UniProtKB/TrEMBL annotation:
Organism: termite gut metagenome
MF term (GO), any: mRNA binding
InterPro entries in UniProt: HicA_mRNA_interferase, HicA_sf
Protein name: YcfA-like protein
Regions annotated as coiled coil: none
Transmembrane segments: none
Keywords recorded for this protein, A-Z: Endonuclease, Hydrolase, Nuclease, RNA-binding, Stress response, Toxin-antitoxin system
SUPFAM superfamilies for the chain: YcfA/nrd intein domain (SSF54786)
Length: 50
């Protein structure tokens, strides 16, 4: 996992978000009080975003 992705996950977890589910390279986080879902994706070095 890229350093920036790990940093982003660390920041949102510190704010109270938790990993709700993961589908492949998509991690979806939810919060007990705040509404909505935060999705963080990571495709690695070998895969091009299209």
């Amino acid at each position: 996992m890229a350093k920036k992705v790990r940093e982003a996950i660390k920041i949102i977890k510190k704010d109270g978000w938790y990993l709700d589910r993961q589908d492949g390279s998509h991690k979806q986080f939810k919060h007990l009080v705040k509404t909505g879902t935060v999705t963080i994706t990571y495709h690695g070095k070998g895969k091009q975003n299209r």
